[in-house]
Design brief:
483 residues; alpha+beta; 3 domains; five-stranded antiparallel beta sheet; disordered N terminus
Amino acid sequence: MTSRSPAIAAIAATLSGVLAAGGAAFAADSAADEASNKLAYEILKQLVETNTADSVGNVTTAAEEMAQRFRDAGFPAADVVVIGPENPKKQNLVVRLHGTGQYKPVLLMGHLDVVEARREDWSTDPFKLVEADGYYYGRGTSDMKDGDAIMVATLLRMKQEGYRPDRDIILALTADEEGGCCNGPDWLVQNHRELIDAEFAIDTDGWSVTSEKGVPKEFRLGATQKVYADYQLEVTNRGGHSSEPRPDNAINQLAHALLNIANYHFPFELNNVTRAYYERVAAGSPPGRAADIRGILKTPPDPGAVERMSSHAPDNAIMRTNCVSTRISGGHANNALPQRAEAVVNCRILPGHSPEEVRQRLISVIADAGVTVRYIAFDGTVGDKAPDRGGVAPPPLNPQVLEPLDAQVAATWPGIAVIPYMDAGASDAIYTSAAGIPTYGISGIAIDADDVRAHGRDERVGVQSFYTGNLFFYRYMKALTAR
């Protein structure tokens, strides 16, 4: 990876030309566009270089930095609120741009926290924004400080323009989406619903434009998502001296349980969103894949098609519940048989199925009474029972959201369709959706399907993708809120 400094002159030159995300032509057609892109870059840099990981980072620092930008831009103090639980590192920012009040508000959502990143694992410092080879590298560049920066830049531009939308636009930048004690949207819903109450919400977590070798293929409208759940597997036994090994030592016993889980496949299942997704993508797929898609859409589905589609990880992730071991520990001495071993199994559960249902399924799959399976709550507490509630039903496809989206996607990426999609991951939409605020996943970022680095080493976002996403989101928000 060849590194170079992102000189302002070079940025300006890029912005004044045609900005492409995945091959899409989207020009910065005015000085205001160029200024907005420059501002978005400065905000992205500030956010990436503010460590907000749970271990040593501080979300409040980032929230205060963004709050100061809004205050400096002339937002009244009453409309820029930094608020949260007693934990001083977990405060959230809520900003309101007042509109005419003709319609109920729209809520824009983004999380400020990021997953951990070790300097020794990365090619660059993960908490420095580095431009190289047409990408911005740094922790959070794709999950999701790029989206945070774009939303902040959009509201600041609207304020500077004196724009008055037909509804209030609320921005919530929050803590602990990636895990931790104090999830921001959950806390706001429970304690200050009035700050974020809205007719619907737009969650920019992630990316919407999926591309292949830079060519955009589809725009995914997040319409539902899987349920996130962690489980603790634990084995304890009497241990012993390592000179007298026994196959039933705790680590061996745990390893057998994890292999059983790895070899188990939850049942194939499509819901109304995933079925609609495959119905729409079949026409543009290569012949072999199109035939397999038609096969899984049959009633009953073609087993061979299901098997072939399941071998492709992204498809497998949206066709069934998935569980995978992510952490393991055990033993207490090099010369002793382990008397305790633990593992964490992470599951992404299809809507309609509960974490407790999956916990019981894991117990059945493991088939070993010596392995306990307990649920790990979002705050880290471990219990003998998981929640019984399944995922929230997908919201209706609101024309107020979809019609301007169709128009702006067509203008930005001609020829690609907006397709309802079920996110195989999980986001803060689970809290707002459960609270009765229909939440849609919409972002203007384009990422190649084989270059997704969120949560991973050398996380990055394309430079051109970022700027195109910034201009797209501004135009979409204007279309959404200007009747």
